């Protein structure tokens, strides 16, 4: 994500009194070009690297050859073509979808709960989805195969609903501290239930653990086809709410006085973000960290308006997860690292870096 | 089913090899106990198997030579337990140990086995857990010897406070380890002679199986532990079994601390193994048909030649007497390979 | 014509009845000050009039029964300046002011160029140009009140509700903000309903004063009638003197023991 410092230094050239990014035309162009550039670069890197030694030239030829009216041939064997088209490329695309969805959902949760720490983990969504998926996996058979996304979704919704209900009864839904505390309690409860179910059905312990640790799946394009409808719905709806999320930032009373029903918005956005999160979590397992650091980094560098935050979080979240997965595939090749380990390992220092730069400016 | 260490939630991926052979794989840190056990076992693999390990005065089946001192822990461990008299209330929390106990004729001394000890059928299976041992539940059976594969200090010290010795027989790293643990069980239960007989019988059958099978030198294989492509290297005990037949492991290029790496899918396809062994077919996991349908896998030689073999998860994951069956099964599979003739 | 009329308004907060059988009518372009001791129900009444709290009884805004208004139509008629506006981190002053256009936007729409012009117009009306690109959370109290006022004006309301708009400001900034509101209401004929803490300022700026105590209307009328030393003494449990000045009555606290 080399573009962030560029844009940063552009804004640091401004007088200190005006640290807000000026939404000038040029700034906007820089912003979108850098985001798309980073995304495209990371997709290419993701496509280029991997334990199977495919040369970038051949990969470019393969990609070009797949375009209509372009007639070029790469020197890849049939087997290498299979590796590229059916294993590596779907994984890169899945990584982009998962990263974009986790980041945009994280930004949406943080928006509706007005809490910069809100993310699927903190709100109990992950724990609830974990319980749902564990139940599905332990049931085995066709439920274990196809039921994981549905069970994960139901679990996630129940958990976030519990968090919200608990927070609302105690703090009137206003205090973000109460929401976070409620989330911690709900997450603890669902984690305990998940552990109980998992220990009870210890036959499938290993499958459950694999899922919990997170891994971009090995199902080729199938997983992408399965989750794409849910993910697209969630992207589109969240994007529609980009301005309303900005309104919600001023608190429930003022939101209502501006003609928006905050409770209804919160319900729709939470359902939508949970739909997206649980859909990707169902195929990728629990990949932490993306939903919290990417929106934060985008806020620090580009500003907090959801009109910028949502699309940029998607672009950078996608780029981040594609790159971390590339690292997970290559660091100990031909073995693999769990991607959750890599996201934390690369993400934490990167986040500190962004935080430091953000501090210097303001 | 047993685990090398008690799993902590999501910090450690505990990879269960479906029967009892287990590997603990930690994202942050490999549990020291497992690494230690494996390293020790490797280092001391050369130290012969039986004579130095069993009690010096273990002589005959009738007398048993009690009290005996038996080495507890990994092969080459220097800690011992003392068994005052021939035990007749044994609890086995290890499926491998359960199989051995019945194979050496100590079956009628066994009063309870854990929930994963599925073989032999006459073993008194209970709901005791080997990897989440509950000391009170164990003591409820009034045992005079507990055998476990999990070196869990809390359980061991709890049992020893009640005067019950615990014999720890963890997962082994080679054939000598298998024999060594069988002989230690023989000494501990007063069946030295029949344990020696079992071991020499196993050695003979393995030699027979290996010489009967065609040498598959240069034939590559992939052993699938689970659908997320955890596998074994030649360094592991399972890998050594394949090595007997000259099979070459595709995972040996992978860096791994204990011989159980997780492979990249594209690497597996590129490595193009001639044979695939599925140890994860038990719980609706993988099947030859499912493997053939995986995206990109149709190009693999093993798929093209239909050389995908399903392993009995219990046999391929326990280190008891049925290791011989495992070797014989692999030998039979190797005999079917079309490449071997060529 | 009355812009605002309430009849037999009752408002609950939880189980507690906070405003009881309150009726009032406010003429267009008038400034009505709500005064009364802490807990009298001033904020609750404002929120009920803004449609933020459920209430029983009738409210008419510009001759329309508010029950027939959608939330957005409501927000086009009535704007609220809260006592302590929330200032989200990372939002610029311009962005914060632009939120005032929300009632005029389609469900998922963003601001049109006409909306943007309206925002810029209010920024220049309130002399906020040099703050427009600043982060809203870096403003001082007086600046922030002007920004929130600009946002409220972007709603182009008939009625402006102020909830103790100057309680956090020093006396100079209080005057600046109140003068501004007074100027705007004359210019645009906006009706102002303001909960006010300072009785002297309330008397100086308002046409009418409503004195509330424990959810009941004690008295409504011109400042000189309502602000009597005995009445204030009773309602607030305070000792005060009321001086009659040209600008209206001035309420001065008196130390109880110094008599």
Written account of the structure:
The complex is a heterotrimer of chains A (362), B (342) and C (259). Chain A is mainly alpha-helical. Chain A has one domain (3-7, 39-48, 55-66, 78-361): ABC transporter involved in vitamin B12 uptake, BtuC. Chain A is 76% helix and 0% strand. Chain B has 342 residues and is of the alpha/beta class. Chain B folds into two domains: 68-190, Nitrogenase molybdenum iron protein domain (Rossmann fold, 3-Layer(aba) Sandwich), CATH 3.40.50; 213-341, 3-Layer(aba) Sandwich (Rossmann fold), CATH 3.40.50. Helix content of chain B is 35%, strand content 13%. Chain B is built from 13 helices and twelve strands. Residues 1-62 of chain B have low confidence and may be disordered. Chain C has one domain (2-258): 3-Layer(aba) Sandwich (Rossmann fold). Helices cover 33% and strands 29% of the residues of chain C. Chain C has helices at 42-49, 71-77, 93-98, 113-125, 141-154, 171-188, 199-205, 223-226, 229-236, and strands spanning 2-13, 16-27, 31-35, 55-61, 64-65, 78-81, 159-163, 191-195, 208-213, 216-221, 240-245, 248-253. A six-stranded mixed β-sheet of chain C has the order 6-7-8-3-9-10, with helices on both faces. In chain C, a hairpin with a 2-residue loop joins strand 4 (55-61) and strand 5 (64-65). The model of chain C has no long low-confidence stretch (mean pLDDT 90). Chains in contact: A-B, A-C.
CATH class of chain C: Alpha Beta
Write the CATH fold name of chain C: Rossmann fold
Principal-axes shape call of chain C = globular
CATH class of chain A: Mainly Alpha
Give the end-to-end Cα distance of chain A, rounded to a whole number of Å: 21 Å
Which structural class is indicated by helix and strand composition of chain A? mainly alpha
Q: Please trace the helix and strand order of chain C, writing H or E for each element.
A: EEEHEEHEHHHEHEHEEHHEE
Largest contact between protein chains? Answer: A-B, 48 and 45 residues
Q: Any low-confidence stretches of chain A, pLDDT <50, length ≥5?
A: 1-22
Integer tally of domains of chain C? 1
Number of E-type strands of chain C: 12
Percent of residues in helices of chain C:
25-40%
What oligomeric state best describes the polypeptide chains here? heterotrimer
CATH superfamily of chain A: ABC transporter involved in vitamin B12 uptake, BtuC
Strand content of chain C: 25-35%
Amount of helix of chain A: over 70%
The radius of gyration over CA of chain C amounts to: 19 Å
**How many beta strands in the DSSP annotation of chain A?**
0
Tally of alpha and pi helices of chain C: 9
